[in-house]
Amino acid sequence: MTATLTRTVPLASAPRRRRPRSRVAAWIAVAVIGVFGLAPIYWLVVTAFTPDDKAFSFPPALFPTEITFDHFTKLAENEQLFGYLVNSVIVSVVTAFLSVLVSAYMAYAFSKFRYRGRKSLMHLILASQLFPQAVLLITLYAVFSATGLLGSYAALILSFTTFTLPLCVWMLKGIFDTVPSTLMEAAAIDGASRWRTLHQIALPLAAPGLVAAGLFAFVRAWNDFIFALTLTDPARQTLPPGLVHTYLGEFQTAWPDLMAASFVVSLPVIAAFMFLQRYLVGGLTAGAVKG
Amino acid sequence: MRGRKLSDGQFAWLLMVPGLALFLAIIAYPLVSALVTGFFEQSLVRPGRSFVGLANFADLLGGDFWPVLRNTLVFTLGATIAPFLIGYALALALNAGLPGWLRGLFLFPWVIPGVVVSFLWLWIFNANYGVLNGLLGTHISWLGEPTTAMIAVIVTKTWASFPWMMVMLLAGLQTMPKELHEAASVDGAGAIRRFRSVTVPHMRAIAGIAFLLEFIWNFQHFDTIYVLTGGGPAGATKTFAVAVYDTAFKGFDLGHATALGGLWMLLLLVLMAFYLRKENA
């Protein structure tokens, strides 16, 4: 009896003793990585609110002593930047709608039907988002310039679709896979056509997934740099290349202004991801959310 | 409705028509056409082209290809291994019972747009007023020296990528049955032993896919490198993406640009074959 007693003592106390220690180690890891991960964001925000004379001093003050909103008011008055913003919104929203519309039908076919060539096509589309943009860009440039689309919104939207289409197809296939086939069979027995089953049963059930896929597409389009840099004229440029041209070409970059602009450009994307938290892993494994 | 007369297979193909048309027009055709251009001498600004066989490839393999391959490999390895290790450590830490909002907090570097990431680190690495030099009390031109420039772009890309690694690996850790760890610790296995014998085997599949995907993305990464260094100084950070872009849109030499692109894609194809096999497994 004494033997069993002494043996139960370390067993019972061992996990209790270990847990705080591993948790302390975990907090230390989080703190170290946290400095690397979050200090730059702190610096972005601090710089955006720092007056120019303080920002351009050496060594820089790590903690702000003076706060200004000048950089943001300057931003709001800049008509050129406002133009880039409008372009970004138009192009990203249209890209998202177009991608979801086209991909939903394709993903539904992939998910709910079995036919020859299905597997190879799915792989081709999955693989296509791993093709380098820089190579695609060369021919897209030639095609758009031959058709007179170069510099138009359409050129940007179509080029963005090269990466949002595969992404949305794979995400939505995953979503449709979770819609039980029995529901569709039931609809078919009740006399609904396949067309009606798709629109009145499957699509409404997949609605949250459609929104998520659309948001991912929006974010990818909003963030794109290489296509927007090359396929547009200055009047149709979106924010990423627009900011590069506005700020980086100058002799002395206006860093606080640029940080304020960066702050503003990031906001819609951050908002989108707050909604997307739940879909994050699914969306990520569906393919290249960010390349 | 008309649809009812079609077989299921025909109906499925009908649904795919818009997507396929788009796919063929903006992905498949441009890609094939680009690969064909590699066998021609063609300029971006002058019309017409002439067939030159393998001359473009021979030019590249006789010189420019190798430094670009070397830069791409250094960048890709660095910018994949570092976020993988940081992301893994963070995922393990967050899985040890820390509050869930921390995950959201760490996503910020990954969520913000790529150009913003580039602007931010350009500012941090700035030689005159940058905060890094401020902390070190130096005036090093980080982006102006070949070695430090490569390290700088790797650090920047690592910063933008480690959250994605964390999310993927954390998802893997969360599917690991707790009983496995409990059983191992009852058997007297310490933390390191449990990590090696329980966690690592369980995570092998997802860690492999996460690593490979990140590797493939870095292999074709453009944004940060282009904004931070433009491939410089003296070509020290010129990777495939930057080299192809510059050859086509600054040198106007489409033949060499697409030939380089073809070689680049050949290497990517090998990686992709690995990926598709893993994805299927």
Give a short summary of the structure.
The complex is a heterodimer of chains A (291) and B (281). Chain A is mostly helical.
From the structure above, extract its key features.
heterodimer, A: 291 residues, mainly alpha, disordered C terminus, B: mainly alpha, two-stranded antiparallel ribbon, 13 helices, globular
Describe this structure in words.
The complex is a heterodimer of chains A (291) and B (281). By secondary structure, chain A is mainly α. Chain A has helices at 2-48, 52-55, 70-77, 79-112, 118-128, 133-147, 153-177, 181-189, 194-205, 207-223, 226-230, 239-248, 255-276, 280-285. The longest helix of chain A is centred in the first third of the chain and has 47 residues, at 2-48. The model of chain A is unreliable at 1-18 and 286-291 (pLDDT under 50). The mean pLDDT of chain B is 88. At the A-B interface, helix 1, helix 4, helix 5, helix 6 and helix 7 of A face helix 1, helix 3, helix 4, helix 5 and helix 6 of B.
Q: Helix and strand layout, with pairings?
A:
The complex is a heterodimer of chains A (291) and B (281).
Chain A: H1 2-48, H2 52-55, H3 70-77, H4 79-112, H5 118-128, H6 133-147, H7 153-177, H8 181-189, H9 194-205, H10 207-223, H11 226-230, H12 239-248, H13 255-276, H14 280-285
Helix pairs in contact in A: 1-13, 3-13, 4-7, 4-10, 4-12, 5-7, 7-10, 8-9, 10-13
Chain B: H1 8-37, E1 40-42, E2 49-51, H2 55-61, H3 65-95, H4 101-106, H5 108-111, H6 114-124, H7 131-136, H8 146-174, H9 178-186, H10 191-219, H11 223-228, H12 240-249, H13 254-280
Antiparallel strand pairs in B: 1-2
Summarize the biggest pleated sheet of chain A. none
Question: How would you sum up the major sheet of chain B?
Answer: 2 strands, antiparallel
How would you spell out the order of helices and strands of chain B? HEEHHHHHHHHHHHH
- Strand % of chain B is under 5%
Count of beta strands of chain B: 2
Cα-to-Cα separation, first versus last residue of chain B: 41 Å
Structural class given helices, strands, pairing of chain A?
mainly alpha
Helix content of chain B: over 70%
Helix content of chain A: over 70%
Q: What is the H/E string of chain A?
A: HHHHHHHHHHHHHH
Question: What is the quaternary state of this protein?
Answer: heterodimer
Q: Quote the distance from N terminus to C terminus of chain A.
A: 64 Å
What's the Cα radius of gyration of chain B? 24 Å
Fraction of residues in β-strands of chain A: under 5%
Give the number of helices of chain B: 13
Mean pLDDT of chain A: 84
Contiguous uncertain segments of 5+ residues of chain B: none
From the spread of the alpha carbons, the general shape of chain B counts as globular
Helix and strand composition category of chain B: mainly alpha
Low-confidence stretches of chain A: 1-18, 286-291
Tell me the number of strands of chain A: 0
